[in-house]
Design brief:
binds fe (ii) ion; globular; Four Helix Bundle (Hemerythrin (Met), subunit A); 69% helix
Length: 134
């Protein structure tokens, strides 16, 4: 059973962002599956690094997209991305210090982050709020 399935509600209708989000789900599933079948630490480590790379790339691409469409809350969204990366790094550092198994808290974080971020925060740049009428 995969760690996370792609759900229609994740679809934003911005094809490049949707493709990257799907890539993140796939990379998370890969980490989960490797950990579930007790793959070696170096193998799991490489999968986490791959996920980290995709995440950084996605955040950069998404921020460029928000800039392009003139999304007003870009700075806030950038800060949220930076905080997510910090948490990711903290979990990854803990993994590296351990025996090679992924802490369930790391998976909880990944699942929560992707679900709530895509359906909540990311969705905001799809239909930016109209300026209030004066
Ligand atoms: Fe985002
Ligand atoms: Fe995103």
């Amino acid at each position: 059973m995969p760690f996370m399935n792609w759900e229609p509600r994740f679809e934003l209708g911005v094809s490049t962002m949707d493709a990257e989000h799907k890539g993140l789900v796939a990379a998370m599933n890969e980490v989960f599956e490797l950990d579930a079948r007790q793959a070696g630490k170096a193998t799991v480590d490489a999968a986490i690094q791959k996920l980290a790379g995709l995440t950084k790339q996605h955040f950069a691409d998404e921020e460029a997209h928000m800039q392009k469409v003139g999304f007003a809350d870009l700075r806030v969204h950038q800060r949220i991305h930076a905080e997510l990366l910090q948490k990711f790094t903290a979990h990854y550092t803990a993994f590296q210090a351990g025996q090679g198994r992924v802490d369930p808290a790391f998976f909880d974080f990944l699942k929560f982050w992707l679900r709530s971020h895509i359906t909540g925060v990311d969705r905001q740049y799809v239909a930016p709020r109209q300026p209030a009428k004066v």
